Amino acid sequence: MKCELQLERSSRTYASGEEIKGSLIVENAPNGVHYNSLSLVLEGYIKGQVSMKSVGALDEILPQVPPIIICRQTQIAAERGIFSSSKTGFPFSIRVVAQEGQSLLETYTGVYISIQYEIKASFNVTEGKNKISTPVPIKVMIHVPGLGIIEGMSRSPQVQPFTITPTSVANPSRLISLPEFRIEGELSSNLFELDKEFSGWIVIVEATKPIKSIDLQLIRIESIFSGDTGFKEPTEVQSLQVADGDVRKGAKIPLYMLFPRQFTCPSTFYKKFKIEFEINLSILFIDGYQLTKNFPIYLIR
User: Fold this and answer.
1) How far apart are CA 196 and CA 165, in angstroms?
2) Quick check: helix, strand or coil at residue 67?
3) What does the pLDDT look like over 232-275, one tens digit per residue?
4) pTM of the shown model
5) Which InterPro entries does the entry link to (predicted)?
6) Which residues, 6 or more positions from 280, have their beta carbon under 8 angstroms from its beta carbon?
7) Domains, the chain
């Protein structure tokens, strides 16, 4: 005998407060076999995870930050019964709500922090010779409307103009070795909804040396704290080339990026960790000099 979990929603994506509906399907079950205590559990948890890049830095912190259960909902799909056909389905419905004393966070897979939700099933078969393999847990993606908004923050876009010159990106002692340039641009906001795009534009007003490429990077910054110790590390989520070669002076170059599911989430400030995001605008000159302009952003749902 074997069994598997099936969900009604193919996307496996749910908002907080919604019900996750599906069935536990048991196949090749002999007639007359008794079962009992058929239950399903939705569990959401936060855990820190070690990357080979920073094992030493995290060795002292992670043992002090055990996994945190933020959601655990159980449904009894069947108390007891007898299999009467070769394929039997047990429907279930579990609501996405937080564990008492906790708050729901969005599904997220980072380098050092992971927030996951999964549905597990378990039950017993009374006849010892007839065993049912435990179905593989199903991971679901949870969205939490309103998450990422800080008290007093407006959801209305606030245009962010900027200008980049040698004096804005370098120490005075380095100015003599830098090319002359002036770059102007604008971000549509510093606050972005995850299901909408990041957007903006830049213009190369002046550059005494040719430009080789212009790239847009989405950076995550994960921080983990324990007592007086802490760990903070920026890592790249994705990078897009927005221009190749020496672009025409005065041409408006659009900046556009979609936020990837699973690897981004609303900006999160939790008890022992933070997840923040920023955009890097990277301009590489033909002689190898690279300048990077950093823009902290807030992601919200």
Assistant:
1) 30
2) coil
3) 889 999 999 999 999 999 999 999 999 999 999 999 998 889 99
4) 0.88
5) Arrestin-like_C, Vps26-related
6) 216, 217, 219, 292, 293, 294, 295
7) 2-143 (2.60.40.640), 160-300 (2.60.40.640)
